[in-house]
Write a sequence for this structure.
């Protein structure tokens, strides 16, 4: 395996963004703004039934739990969201090698996705 075979943090973030974006579309969210840069939060600003949502997306790799989030960051985003009467949601997306979670992720191998939807913050 070469270093090129390993997905970058940006690669994983883009996969997580696609996973969450597809889910939001399927749920009928209207996209107001999308920011696909890592650590530029929120990644999605959406509307649904006239409610504004700030959605933070985080990619993680097994064995990290994708539902774990930075409480300090979420509080900072929540305070910012209050100014816009927005609701904050967290979307953690986990990745692992499909054939064996203990092996490292590589671009040439299938991967498993662990995404359980939006979390209330």
């Amino acid at each position: 395996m070469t270093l090129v075979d390993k997905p970058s943090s940006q690669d994983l973030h883009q996969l997580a963004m696609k996973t969450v974006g597809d889910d939001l579309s399927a749920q009928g969210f209207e996209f107001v703004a999308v920011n696909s840069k890592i650590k530029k939060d929120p990644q999605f600003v959406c509307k649904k039934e006239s409610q504004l949502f700030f959605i933070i997306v985080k990619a993680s790799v097994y064995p990290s739990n994708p539902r774990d989030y930075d409480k300090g960051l979420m509080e900072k985003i929540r305070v910012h969201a209050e100014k816009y009467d927005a609701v904050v949601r967290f979307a953690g997306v986990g990745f692992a090698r499909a054939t064996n979670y203990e092996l490292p992720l590589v671009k040439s191998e299938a991967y498993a996705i662990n995404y359980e939807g939006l979390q209330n913050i």
Observations:
- The beta strands are 30-34, 44-48, 51-61, 86-97, 111-114, 119-120.
- The longest strand covers residues 86-97.
